[in-house]
Known about the structure:
- This protein has 6 helices and 9 strands.
- The N and C termini lie far apart (47 Å).
- The protein has helices spanning 2-11, 24-35, 42-46, 86-100, 104-118, 148-151, and strands spanning 63-70, 75-83, 122-130, 154-159, 162-165, 167-176, 215-224, 232-238, 243-249.
- Strand 4 and strand 5 form a beta hairpin.
- The protein is an alpha+beta fold.
- Strands 1-2-3-7-6 form a 5-stranded antiparallel beta sheet.
- Helix 4 packs antiparallel against helix 5 (104-118).
Amino acid sequence: MILESILLMAALAGRPQFPASPIPEHLAQGRSLGRSKPKFSTHDLFGSPAPRTTFDTIWKSDKQDIGWWSNGYSQQPVEQVIWLSPELMSRWLGFLQAREYWSDDELLDRWGAVRKRLTGSYTFIVQLTAFPKLPTYGIGDYVRTTPEELLNVRFVMTSKGTSLPLRAEQLAFWQARKREELKRYDWWRSFEFGWALTGEFDLPSEPPFLAVGDYYRAWYLLSIDTAPKFDRFEVRTLSRRKERVASFKYPSASSSGDTSEGSRKPRERRSTGFSFRPPLSSGRS
Length: 285
């Protein structure tokens, strides 16, 4: 095992680098998503303004489902791992630029803040849940659960039979009576560079008013300063009864963009290191 770890560390010769500017292909995808509208909806029938596409369209393969829950009628994904890759960050900022008509200077300022902190490491957001078991088609019992499987956890990155531990920081833990109260948490606001990923008109998410109920959700930030240059790797969430696995493909050189500094350096705007605020609980003091 020691030899395998040594060999793996030897393979980690390079760190993932964010290019000097957003990756053009993914920036264009984000802009397109930001400008697009659903092709058809009930809004068209009644003449009300057509809704714009939601932010969830930007994730693509950088968001992997790792846990499902039955609402009594169908299985629904409720646990995910999000890789904060250069591709995702390019789509993210392209989406917001199209929505808010940023200048290129504004875009590069925000990209510079993201790049300064995320380049050289792999960073992930993990969302874990514990929901009660509901009767299937009205048959069976309502069974409560506990948050053990989302609080007593460990995270590792694996590739080709070897593994590396991931640094983990809990960002928030919420508890509520209804699932709908747990749907939206703006985890990016926990970072000092969170301003770069936040739209001008985005309202901050709020935890449930009371920390009561049978629905639990926790968010974690994972990171590692060196990353395997393998074709594929996994992020594994380990707990007493479960092993959740998210599989990702290492970006090819052709899709990573130019990693040189280039002729245009983003302007410094403010400190961009990770500075965590205390995890948000679901109660009120």
